[in-house]
Amino acid sequence: MEWVVTLDAEITGTDSNELADQIIGSLNEFSPAVGARGQRVGVTMSIKAATDGLALDQAKAAFAQALGPQAKLIDARAQTVDDLERELERS
User: Fold this and answer.
1) 3-class DSSP assignment, residue 15
2) What is the per-residue pLDDT across 29-42, written as a single tens digit (0 to 9) for each?
3) CA distances (Å), 77 to each of 1, 18, 39, 42, 60, in order?
4) pTM for this structure?
5) Quick one: fold of 2-90?
6) Domain map of the chain by residue range?
7) Does residue 16 contact residue 67 with C-beta atoms inside 8 Å?
């Protein structure tokens, strides 16, 4: 099943805007969309996994590897592609 995973992190020691290209390059296989502002960075990516928990675990591991130890995960969310489409239609 394909999941859309959104992760937000707080970055210390560097401006998140400087990391955007690095994050996109590191997470390229997951078709990432990255947003950065000040000390915060967020990414939405596509993950194929059997469950939402496995999708979150895979996304968090890839995100941590891309950002390194200066990042503190502050929010994580996984939803199916269908759920995301329904949510976007309501907005």
Assistant:
1) coil
2) 999 999 988 888 99
3) 16, 24, 20, 11, 10
4) 0.87
5) Alpha-Beta Plaits (3.30.70)
6) 2-90
7) no
CA angle 11, 48, 88 (to 5 degrees): 70
Of 4-18, 27-41, 49-63, the one with minimum mean pLDDT is 4-18
- Contacts of residue 85, defined as CB under 8 A and 6 or more positions apart, other chains included, come to none
CB 71 within 8 A of CB 41: yes
The first and second tokens of residue 13, run together, are 């020691």
Measured between alpha carbons, how far is 31 from 25 in angstroms, rounded to an integer?
A: 10
Structure tokens that stand for 18 in this block? 């400087």
Give the strands of the sheet with 33-37, arranged side by side: 33-37, 40-48, 2-11, 71-80
